[in-house]
């Protein structure tokens, strides 16, 4: 059985969605924020971050995008991703890497700004630059979604859920909803989705309609 280490409102959101879509059994541990963290948790998550997924063979992995891609690979029937070798697969891998390497770190720079400067006066500037970088990333994704129902291929994939998780973290969410109409269109669709509503009830990623 899988085991998901997570926390409400964290990147565990997308992994929980992926697991739910596979239908695979899993249990869930909500990791308390502790200082210092438990060594047992550091052993599986050296940066003390969630999500972590422990696989049925006992191996643990971090990195939300890698976890989602692995689940897609292990449960192809769930349709979390376009099939390997399909034309949409390249887009899927591209956007999963883009979101986890450009946007997620920009979100972290905003919420953990102190980590990103040695200058006690520098926090405000780090936050401002983080928002600018988020805006750049969402502008790219909005363009990629133009004229499309889903970010990749012709159907929902875990990349769509990853995207709405990220935009829900935007510090100025009202502006986000108007600045990127294609992202908002996708998000609006997912806000009405039964699984998203269920997950949102525990993660409180966005206010209910
Ligand atoms: N690169 C990691 C980032 C994970 C991450 O930063 N998780 C946040 C919650 S959304 C966390 O655990 N932050 C606590 C910390 O960094 O101390 C991923 O994609 O999974």
Description:
The chain is an alpha+beta fold. The chain is 55% helix and 8% strand. The chain contains 9 helices and 4 strands. It has a 4-stranded mixed beta sheet with strand order 2-1-3-4, covered by helices on one side. The radius of gyration is 17 Å and the shape is globular. The N and C termini lie far apart (35 Å). It binds glutathione (GSH). The site of glutathione has 14 residues, from helix 3 and helix 4.
Describe the structure concisely.
The protein is α+β, with helices and mostly antiparallel strands. It contains nine helices and four strands, in the order βαβαββααααααα. The protein has a four-stranded mixed beta sheet, covered by helices on one side.
Number of domains: 2
Largest sheet, strands/sense/barrel: 4 strands, mixed
User: What's the arrangement of strands in the largest beta sheet?
Assistant: 2-1-3-4
Please compute the radius of gyration using only Cα atoms: 17 Å
CATH topology of the largest domain: Glutathione S-transferase Yfyf (Class Pi), Chain A, domain 2
How much helicity do the residues have?
Answer: 55-70%
Contiguous helical run count: 9
Cofactors, ions, other ligands: glutathione
Task: Supply the key terms.
globular, alpha+beta, 2 domains, Glutathione S-transferase Yfyf (Class Pi), Chain A, domain 2, 4 strands, four-stranded mixed beta sheet, 209 residues, 9 helices, binds glutathione, Glutaredoxin
